ER membrane protein complex subunit 1 (Erythroxylum novogranatense), 982 residues
Amino acid sequence: MAIRVFVTVVIVLAVISHAFCIYEDQVGLMDWHQQYIGKVKGAVFHTQKTGRKRVIVSTEENVIACLDLRHGEIFWRHVLGGNDAIDGIDVAMGRYVITLSSGGSTLRAWNLPDGQMVWESFLQGPINSKSTLLVPINLKVDKDSVIFVFGKGSVHAVSCLHGDVLWKKDFPDDSFQVKQVVQVVGTDSTYVVGFAGLSQFHAYQINARNGELIKHRSAVFSGGFSGEISLVSSFALVALDSSGSSLVVVNFQDEISFQKTDIRDLVDDFVGMAVILPSKLTGMFCLKTNNHVVFIRVIDEGMLELVDKINNRMAVSDALPISESQNAFAIVQQGISDIHLSVKLASDWNLDLLKESVKMDQQRGFVDKLFINNYVRTDRSHGFRALLVMEDHSLLLVQQGEVVWCREDGLASIIDVTTSELPVGKEGVSVAKVEENLFEWLKGHLLRLKGSLMVANPDDVAAIQSMRMKNSEKSKMTRDHNGFRKLLIVLTKAGKLFSLHTGNGRVVWSLFLNSLRKSESHEKPVGLNVYQWQIPHHHAMDANPSIMVVGRSHPSLNAPGVVSFVDTYRGKEVRSMNLVHAVVQVIPLPFTDSTEQRLHLLIDFDGRAHLHPKSPEAISIFMREFGNIYWYSVNSDDGILKGHALKRNCVGEVADEYCFETRHTWSIILPLESERIIKTVTRKLDEVVHTQAKVTTDQDVMYKYISKNILFLATVAPKATGNIGSATPEESWLIAYLVDTVTGRILHRMTHHGSQGPVHAVFSENWVIYHHFNLRAHRYEISVIEVYDQSRADNKDVWKLVLGKHNLTSPVSSYSRPEVLTKSQSYFFTHSVKAIGVTSTAKGITSKQLLIGTIGDQVLALDKRFLDPRRSVNPTQAEREEGILPLTDSLPINPQSYVTHVVKVEGLRGIMTVPAKLESTTLVFSYGVDLFFTRLAPSRTYDSLTDDFSYALLLITIVALVAAIFVTWALSDKKELRDKWR
């Protein structure tokens, strides 16, 4: 009997565990995962005759990746993290990928075929300085290749096989800035050259085998130096003087000599200051002037010779050795709808080894970087392939005049996300597709049956998944009844918009905004946010939704702002504006005009408010609510919170009825010697709350304090602003505030002694959840604060409800001092956190789940009931019936609760949730270097059937039951007749 009970329990647990999982053939039906690497900043080709053709790249997202040259797919990659920026990359001994990162302090070797780390070395030095990586050719010390690294103010020689530091050379002058480390081919001498101060040049000659100093020479150039240098030979380099108008050729082979040349003697129309471009050419360098890129050759005794002038829209590659005595390099010039690629010999400018034109999508912008590689054709001539990094951060491989493959790696740097509905289907949206013939119908259901019984082989699983993808309507370009199909509009760091279909993640359209591209007026434009501008509910059939993209012409806060309006169906820019004022803050207002355009306030650097859209109807709507508009600002550096309201129209030389002066309504000044602001969070403006009442034990009722004007503020002690462990528990504390942003009242204040940031928080309904580190317990914690409205506590009186004297429907006002009750609790949590989100549904009925982006780059779904502050060690029977769980000191982590399953969202930065029309379901989009999308049902799909529900099987079952009823009815009549005859 005991054995039977045990077997029954095991079977029940197995069935329950499978209910939380997805089958192998269901992967990709409700979710998709896309991998990217980011904008490439360094590339090394590996194209030996045997093995796969590869290119190893390093990116601005701190990713090292090995790509297939044939298709652009990722062989392997490593995301090093936000604090481990890559300084250099190269290939050593034909089998190791060498990377230098973290300001020259971390050197790693990776196995080229599979990407496994071979060794890691940490380099120490006296000061922080620019880092340089040099992998010499054919330089061996005791049968071991040597790697030279300059970082932390010292030169290190590192073993390529083991990563051991063979020798280290420090420099006595702390002001010495190394510009180049040069290994002279065929000798054991290494030169380290650079500047000390503004005018002194130093050249150190070091024995590459033992690190001994052979010779040190220095000289002073009276004109001073500025900017970068360009090495033109093993013993000569070119620099700019302090004015940026003259070139200085420095020769350091025997004695240091300077040869100065005025740029105007070479370029007639030169004005202003020039910049030396970072290119590695033999005997030649590139100079960027006001209108052109100039190629200049260095001839005998430091004399300069103008080779050619090309317009600014170009890129040049480093020199590529194609033989023992010849080097080639490539130039890309931008055309109207194409690019012109040419490969030249460094020794003969007029000879083109390759010259071709390639059609290019204008939405990719200009070529930003260029890397070339050569191969030998069947006729023994040299062919070339070019790797192009475009202005929108995409990566292209060009060969024989065609784009071989393209990667949209700009999607690795998303800075903001919003959504848009799809067009309404005029013919209606079909529910299911009819199978082609009877054979396909039977085959499909047989495969589904094998999958349900878990007897399908890998081929059957692939066929089932392909069949489901084919018959699925999730990728249609019309709205569906459940609201699963939407457009994700993402803005990248490059200033490009992408529209992604939630069905399969494909790019529907992309748009490179002209307002966020580099130009003479916009030197370094940056995108800020994307906002909903027009959502046509009543005009859905004859108007398209649009979004507003806000940015700046320069990263500084006082730079003029730029605004663009984009049609989300067509992917076209409707109009754009170059503002005369800065944009520090954007406030979406809860008002729309007759065309359903949403009103926005743009706050400039001087605190003035500007209304958009600028129309008479918008200003009339705005003036009716003039006295009820409040907002706040946070100055983290000074520890000041301020409340703002409108005052009057701006007073200036030109009257502008859409510009308003503002006034301060309140301010909170935190003492900087004891508190530093590290986190602020508010509720989502479009969040839906189903009910304000919460029924508790013994049929008691508590009323949530629901207000969109509450701000969660977290501060820490000044010594605790650094990394974890930078302060002792006695020197560290974390304070959590709840502030009313209309009146400036502090509704709640809680202190966590011995706690430290970073803090990640999410605010929903009447509760806020935040994650921090407890130094005393040496563990992470998640804390929760819930706020309840005590002024409505008497609403549970039935007679007041009958007589209509209750205040249940009265609005919550910030002007009256609220009577609030707070409940809080803290729990230990295992993981560090990168981002926190919360599920949102259409009506707010479905229970909430917390979405936690862990340090392992996965998303964990945690039921909100685990973070109920009313949990106790021994809950009563009434509390158990209410759903309150017994109190434990730590939060449980169920491996089956990971939304991302087994995949990782590398470099996870944000989690966004969007409600579907179906109340049980929410759409989850997480982004970082990778993208992941899925559908989530926190309370299960209680209001719908599953996607794999077999309607045909249901129909067959109904028909069989009806037939069985008629057969049994006939048999029953015959039996009854026989019984009567007896």
Summary: Residues 1-20, 427-436 have pLDDT under 50 and may be disordered. The two ends are 49 Å apart (CA to CA). DSSP finds seven helices and 64 strands in the chain.
